[in-house]
Design goal:
Elements (H helix, E strand, L loop, with lengths): L8 E4 L2 E8 L4 E6 L5 E4 L7 E2 L15 E3 L9 E6 L5 E5 L4 E3 L10 E2 L1 H5 L58 E3 L12 E3 L27 E5 L7 E13 L4 E5 L10 E15 L2
Antiparallel strand pairs: 1-2, 1-5, 2-3, 3-4, 6-7, 6-10, 7-8, 8-9, 11-13, 12-13, 14-15, 14-16
Amino acid sequence: MSKPVAGQWYEFDGERIWFVGYGQGGVACFQRKDCDPSWIVNAHTSRFKHLPDCTGWDWQPETFPQYWTKMDPADAKVAFIKRIGLNDAIVVYCDGTETSADEWYQSNRTRLTEQQALALLDTKPVPDPDAGCWHITHDYSNSDPHHCRKPCVSGTLFCAEHQEKPNPQPAEDPEEWVEITDPEHVVRECDQVNVWKSPRESDWMTPDATLGVKVKRRPDCIFRCRRKDLPKPRRTVTVPKWLVVYGDGKVGVYETDSKPRVDSVHKEVHRVGETTYEIEEA
């Protein structure tokens, strides 16, 4: 590893540190979070792992893949963008095919969960041109008649072109009891708990002892609620965070997609990270 640079962020023995610099006598100074500066012999700085993208104590390295909305909402062919690296992304089309994206831009995009992204794919069945069916005509004198695996609406359709209408699904009963599977769900008064995980209806009870507790805190229990009371789905939104230095030397922090403009009021603008919010769907 190259020689550590003062003012840069590093990882040392599993902890994030800020490198202060070198002192006299072959020692170097660094600082851990919420601790006084520490000293170490220069030779041990070879164990420092540089974090070139780190912006502070709360910074977290990005993980991939990531799923983002498309740039142009009117583009009916594109389902979403799959980001596979800092500067690499894949365009995923509604039919599931993929192509490499020319460039990656985060502006005007919203981050999606993998489940939200996959739900944007078109799941309609696509006729298989190699399924073995051939064009049906009214010429029944064909010496080698083809028996279709599916009945055709008329004698002018391919078998694969015939799409049977799906059976109508019964309407969901809002009063039906359904299991709560979200581990982050906070137990409410309208929920019920089964501490024995049994199939007996009589074992369900009001959640007096677990009220206000997250489901993941009680793996020994199962929880349920009426379908009408199921929590609304949530999505995450990531917003860049900017540090602004004003003309009088004071500083402020803004959260916005667009970088604040440097002008007579904002003398300096630096990106210092991002904040991810969880929003309940309307």
